[in-house]
Structures are given as C-alpha cells and as structure tokens.
Amino acid sequence: MGKKKALEQTVYDFVEDKIKAKDWLPKQHIKEMDVAKALDISRTPIRGAFKRLEADGILKIVPYKGAEILEPEIDSSAFQERTNFLEVLVSYHFQTLELDEVDFDTDGLKETYDKMADDKFGDQDLFEDREVDFWHDLLQYCRNSYMRGMMLDTLRYILPKTGHLKSIIQASRDKKLKHYQFVIDYLEDNNYPYVRRELRILFNQLNMNVIQGV
Q1: How far apart are CA 130 and CA 134, in angstroms?
Q2: What is the pLDDT of residues 87-100, one digit of tens each?
Q3: pLDDT band at residue 137 using 50, 70 and 90 as cut-offs
Q4: Contacts with 92 (C-beta within 8 Å, 6 or more apart), sequence order
Q5: Sign of the dihedral defined by the CA atoms of residues 120, 123, 129, 132, in that order
Q6: Among 86, 49, 80, which Cα is nearest to 66's?
Q7: pTM of the model
Q8: Among the CATH numbers 1.20.120.80, 3.40.50.720, 1.10.10.10, 3.30.200.20, which is that of 1-69?
C-alpha cells in the first residue's frame, strides 16, 4: 500500500472510530482542517478518505462545510421495532387528547400536507423534511416535551437516508399521503379513536412493505 493510500486508511479508521465511540454523532459536521490537525497530516488524503466514507454511506460531503455524519443504516428488524415503539407512543398521545377533549386545530397540518403532496414526485429528502414538519404539527398539543422529542426522534430514525430501506420508504409516499389525509379528516371532527386506528394501519403497512422488500 502506497503512502497516500495508507494515510487515507488512517483517516478512514480515525473517523469511523470516532463515530463508533459516539464522540461524533449523526448530523454533526466535521471539517478537513480539524481532522488534519488531529492527525497532523495534509488535507489531500483526508479528501480521499471522505469520498470513500461517503461511498460507504457514513458521511455526506457538503460543499464548503466539510462532511456531515449520516444516520447509520437500519435493517428491517430495527425498523419494525422503532415503528412499533412509535405506534405505542402516538396511541397514548392521542388517547390523552381524547380524554382532555382537545379541540384540534388542523390548519397547520393542512398547509404542510399540501406541501408534501406537491413534493410527492420530487426530492426524497425534501419530502421527508415536510413529513417531519407534518408530525411537528400533529404533536402540537403534546405537553410532555420529552415524549414529544422521543416521538420525533423515532420518526426521523425510520426515515432512512441511505440503504435499501430508503427506496422502499420512498415508494410508500402515496400510502402515507392517503393515511395522513384521513388523519386530518378525523382530527377535524376530534375523532381520536379513528386517528389512532389510521396511524396504526399506516405503521403496519410500512412494516409489511419493509418485510416484503417492496
């Protein structure tokens, strides 16, 4: 192995070890200059290592900002586990709203839904950003900020940015929009049992798609 390749491998291993040790977390940006200082090397092998890390789905190179650490790819088992966990939390949340007789304001949901529908055939990342916004509106009456954050974090986890699950979830846009429209309709009537049922059906369908790989 030549000196350049050896240095690239050193950088690759350094970044990978930092991520595995959770010293660097998903969404965090790392800069070539910082890695160069840490390893006392030039930037040339760092660029090569970053390209390899991007090809392996570990980093995403961002022009003029270095590289962003990506969420680790999840397998079908982890996806189902997180989806089932989210369903439990969401069901509890809407049951609480039902008991408190909350009059749900759907204006924000409708606006975000329209943006999602407009992006249905567009960029996957943009659609999922809209979807996270939709869930922010969906959870607007959650008084427990910790629980709300947990639900949103779990949602982001089941929106994979890389790997084979990304294409499966991307193909589920129509189903998501269909169920989200029903959710809005039921919320306008404050029909929380039907909201819980509709989201349960959606989660089950997503799990089936992942299991079947379609």
Answers
A1: 6
A2: 999 999 999 999 99
A3: very high
A4: none
A5: positive
A6: 49
A7: 0.70
A8: 1.10.10.10
Is the Cα dihedral 87, 170, 64, 70 positive or negative?
positive
CA 158 to chain centre: 5
Fold (topology level) of 76-212: Four Helix Bundle (Hemerythrin (Met), subunit A) (1.20.120)
Tell me where in the chain the CATH 1.20.120 domain(s) lie: 76-212
- Rounded mean pLDDT, 140-152: 93
Question: Structure tokens of 118?
Answer: 């407009």
In our burial notation (b when 16+ CB lie closer than 10 A, e otherwise), range 154-164 reads: bbbbbbbbbee
SS3 letters across 54-119: HHCCCEEEECCCEEEECCCCCCHHHHHHHHHHHHHHHHHHHHHHHHCCCCCCCHHHHHHHHHHHHC
Radius of gyration of the chain (CA): 21
